Amino acid sequence: MAETWVDPPPLDGVTRVGYSLSGEDLLVASWNGRINIYDGVGGRLKSHLNVNAPVLDASFDEVGRIFSAALGGNVMLHTLAPDGSFKSDLIGAHDQAARCLEITRDPKIVATGGWDETLCGWTPDSSASSQRKPLFSVKVPGRVFAMSSLGGTKMLVGTSNREILLFDVRNPSQPELQRESLLKNQLRCIVGLPDGSGFTAASTEGRVAIENLDGVGSYTFKCHRVDNRIYPVNAISFHPHWHTFATGGADGSVCVWDGTAKKRIRHYPRYDTSVSSLAFHPKGDLLAVAVSYTFEEGDKAHPEDKVLLKPVTDADVQPRIRKS
């Protein structure tokens, strides 16, 4: 299978790429307020919707509906109508930017984190959201910069103060865990480990942390550094079968890691600008790569934004056999 660039490409900086549960569709959210939906394998544009504000995060739920979080603070539900258009409903709002969005399975809640220093939970149903009142709203120590679901009922939150918090969405009044990140610089992303035992986090200092909830065996490692230049690590995505993970950095590269063996498995050739977001296809045979400048060097001329569907083989992602 050859590499495929989605066509047409997004017209502004890409904030999130994400697959539907079936892998048939790929969403690409952008700073221009548009979410494009492409064929998840072929890369052909199928439809699009406009949010009317820069989209900072977006996700499919298990039945293919799209939820978005925007710079203006709004949290929206987008449902595909029979005529191919999207019906958009406001289900909640933050007082400042809604930076992160995650969907828990049991109970099903749309959780969002904002620059207003709150974690909120919303009913994922427009008919029940007419008052736009959150199921819960919890203050956290700093603006929310990163979030990830963990084990179906838990929510990880990373803040501007480098605090990591773990909430149970069934009883979120107090965090089950709160501690300072092992990373010494600003957090860029956080992703729960597939077995629920901990999480990975990445920062602007060209470093990734693998932290266990019990604190035992946690460590950090350097990555995405070129000729002594240190680049932010913008994205992490776990392979659905092997549970190794890919990282994407502002150096324009994608690497695949075996966190258990503490080894790099694959280092793909660099792209011509930053990698802003990553997502493995549910079957694990493709990796969606957003090649999109993330302004780590300020406002300057940069290559056009684009998204690649990259074929993945077992050799690219299979864990390394550890020697006895």
TrEMBL record:
Which keywords does this chain's UniProt record carry?
Repeat, WD repeat
Look up the domain of life of the source.
Eukaryota
Q: What Gene3D superfamilies does this protein's entry cite? A: YVTN repeat-like/Quinoprotein amine dehydrogenase (2.130.10.10)
Q: Where are the WD repeats?
A: 226-267
The signal peptide here is: none
What Pfam families has UniProt attached to this entry?
WD40
What's the protein name? Anaphase-promoting complex subunit 4 WD40 domain-containing protein
Q: Which organism is it from?
A: Rhodosorus marinus
